[in-house]
Amino acid sequence: MKMTFYGQFVAGEDHQSIRAVVQKNQVYGVGAVLDYSVEKISHRKTSSDCRYQARQKFGDRREGVTRTRTYFYADEAKCDQHVETFLKCIKASGNRMFIKTAIKMTALGRPQFLLQFSEVLVKWRCFFSFLAAKQGKDGVEVQEQKLDLEQLQSVASESSILLSIIYIIAFSSETVVFTVDMLDWNYLINERTKISDLLVVPNLQTGQLEPPLSKFTEEEEGQMKGMIQRLGVLAKHAVEYGVRLIVDTEQTYFQPAILRLTVEMKRSFNRDKAVVFNTYQCYFKGAFDNVSMGIKVSRREGWCFGAKLVRGAYMYQERSRAAEIGYEDPINPDYESTNRKYQRCLDYMLEEIERNNKANVMVAMHNLDTVKQKVRMNEMGLAPTDKTVYFGQLLGMCNQISFPLGEHTPTYIHTHTYI
């Protein structure tokens, strides 16, 4: 196998054995993204929303997935072992311009937390959209919607949720506030410090905040904190060793929580340059909203936005799960729709880079369209020496494009290690 499939697509078994491949590629201007690859999610029902319920049938998240790693939760000690392996990758990459490191959030803790936290975030966003519709703004794109606080106050007596929201907004702002957009709305969750207290959702019928289905135990509370702490350790070491840290993509039902936790890391570690990157799957119907909202948060707060754009790795699994459980398919209807979504996200990113030169993007593509993006960079005056736009492919998948690109612009190959 090492002379055929393994040798074509895998760099080696550890950070020592991959060195020859990495050094050979660097001769041609092609860097490496170090990916550590290993191979159960809890089946305990914890959610009233079917999208965020753990299902035994879909417990093995490898099914239908051929291009990405899958981590299964065993215990906290195993998560600590994953962190140690990621740290080895970071240290091996240290202060080397041509190397980045990729991690997966499900390797850092119990996936159940990501499921439940994702439900909370989505339901809070839906509550915002519900209130926007009440104010006649349901036809406006979500990132442009703004709630009028006066109108909220006029109906606040009917809902203790609204009373709490108005109180938080009024007393947390340094200036007089008249409207609330989605970015302001997202800050409301930050007001809670205990993680289990954060895991509540608005009930539109009762006007109360309540847990999605069942509260986390004290042990699970510790596991949630452990995941966040592990992510912080990796980000801190990435800064220390001068390494870009790419938080890899996962299934859409994990993504709201992954996006939010990654933003928290960006707030802390992306002050001077983009150290922490998030991955956006453009086959997801909500991809552009996620990218544009992330950029707007970074503008408002003054940190550097980092993103990797991909088409997606879980299409068949996502569609099968949606059909089986009974919720809307989260994936674009066809390849052309995904292409358009990808281009829209990339255009938005390039315009942001042209505007302030603080954002960074990795363009992960495996076809000739990649070359077109390089031409567009030239037209926009984005020089390769700026190191704000990178290109990325999988090792062995698209060498006929990777190496010519590497001669003219920063290009990285995902260099997998299987242990």
UniProtKB/TrEMBL annotation:
<comment type="pathway">
    <text>Amino-acid degradation; L-proline degradation into L-glutamate; L-glutamate from L-proline: step 1/2.</text>
</comment>
<dbReference type="InterPro" id="IPR029041">
    <property type="entry name" value="FAD-linked_oxidoreductase-like"/>
</dbReference>
<keyword id="KW-0560">Oxidoreductase</keyword>
<dbReference type="GO" id="GO:0071949">
    <property type="term" value="F:FAD binding"/>
</dbReference>
<dbReference type="GO" id="GO:0005739">
    <property type="term" value="C:mitochondrion"/>
</dbReference>
<dbReference type="GO" id="GO:0010133">
    <property type="term" value="P:L-proline catabolic process to L-glutamate"/>
</dbReference>
<keyword id="KW-0285">Flavoprotein</keyword>
<keyword id="KW-0274">FAD</keyword>
<comment type="similarity">
    <text>Belongs to the proline oxidase family.</text>
</comment>
<feature type="domain" description="Proline dehydrogenase">
    <location>
        <begin position="159"/>
        <end position="408"/>
    </location>
</feature>
<dbReference type="InterPro" id="IPR002872">
    <property type="entry name" value="Proline_DH_dom"/>
</dbReference>
<keyword id="KW-0642">Proline metabolism</keyword>
<comment type="function">
    <text>Converts proline to delta-1-pyrroline-5-carboxylate.</text>
</comment>
<dbReference type="GO" id="GO:0004657">
    <property type="term" value="F:proline dehydrogenase activity"/>
</dbReference>
<dbReference type="Pfam" id="PF01619">
    <property type="entry name" value="Pro_dh"/>
</dbReference>
<dbReference type="InterPro" id="IPR015659">
    <property type="entry name" value="Proline_oxidase"/>
</dbReference>
<protein>
    <recommendedName>
        <fullName>Proline dehydrogenase</fullName>
        <ecNumber>1.5.5.2</ecNumber>
    </recommendedName>
</protein>
